[in-house]
Amino acid sequence: MYRAVITVTLRPSILDPEGKTVEHSLHQLGYENVRRVRIGKHIELEVDAGTEDKARETVENICSKLLANPVMEDYTFSLAKVEEAAEG
Amino acid sequence: MYRAVITVTLRPSILDPEGKTVEHSLHQLGYENVRRVRIGKHIELEVDAGTEDKARETVENICSKLLANPVMEDYTFSLAKVEEAAEG
């Protein structure tokens, strides 16, 4: 079992209206020294795979096929082996 | 100038319908070995502060006041000093 932590971010050339809105709100709250707010997605998941290579291939595929829009977004991820957990 | 990278995640006890939807989609796409999908926010921003302590205090405040819902979410962040950039 491998745990993946994935970060999906908008490419630098793509405008980020959500980030701009947050930046504007922060300025209105008095945090005028904050800028370049960019918002992305943080995704955690577990993959049941026999080897780290297999897990990496699965995560790579699901990032490029489902989690990230390849035209507008970049993604990175890290993988860590975890013990089979009892919960949920 | 400090760059903050913030991760906001739902607390483990809080249901994550967005994560469940992604998990369901992944299963339908044939990735049945993926589970415990949880979705959070990844936020990057820059703070113009004289010292790292000041920057940390600002980021701490904006996380607790605006970026995270303290009832349902946890947040972590890292800070790094960056040179004044020419762009944007």
Written description of the protein model:
- Two copies of one chain form a homodimer.
- With 88 residues, the first copy, chain A, is α+β, with helices and mostly antiparallel strands.
- The first copy, chain A, has helices at 17-28, 52-67; strands at 2-10, 34-47, 73-81.
- In chain A, strands 2-1-3 form a three-stranded antiparallel sheet.
- Chain A is elongated, with a radius of gyration of 17 Å.
- Strand 2 (34-47) of chain A pairs antiparallel with strand 2 (34-47) of chain B, so a sheet runs across the interface.
**Most extensive chain contact?**
A-B, 34 and 34 residues
Q: What is the architecture of chain A at the second tier of CATH? A: 2-Layer Sandwich
Count every beta strand of chain A, where a strand is a DSSP E run of 2 or more residues: 3
Backbone structural class of chain A: alpha+beta
Terminal CA distance of chain A reads 14 Å
**What is the CATH homologous superfamily assignment of chain A?**
Phosphoribosylformylglycinamidine synthase subunit PurS
Mean pLDDT of chain A: 93
Main sheet: strands, sense, barrel of chain A:
3 strands, antiparallel
CATH topology call of chain A:
Mth169, Chain: A
Number of domains of chain A: 1
Q: How helical, in percent, are the residues of chain A?
A: 25-40%
Low-pLDDT parts of chain A are: none
> How many H/I helices of chain A?
2
- Write the element-wise H/E pattern of chain A from the N-terminal end onward: EHEHE
Fraction of residues in β-strands of chain A: 35-45%
Give the oligomer, counting copies of the same chain as homo and different chains as hetero: homodimer
CATH class of chain A: Alpha Beta
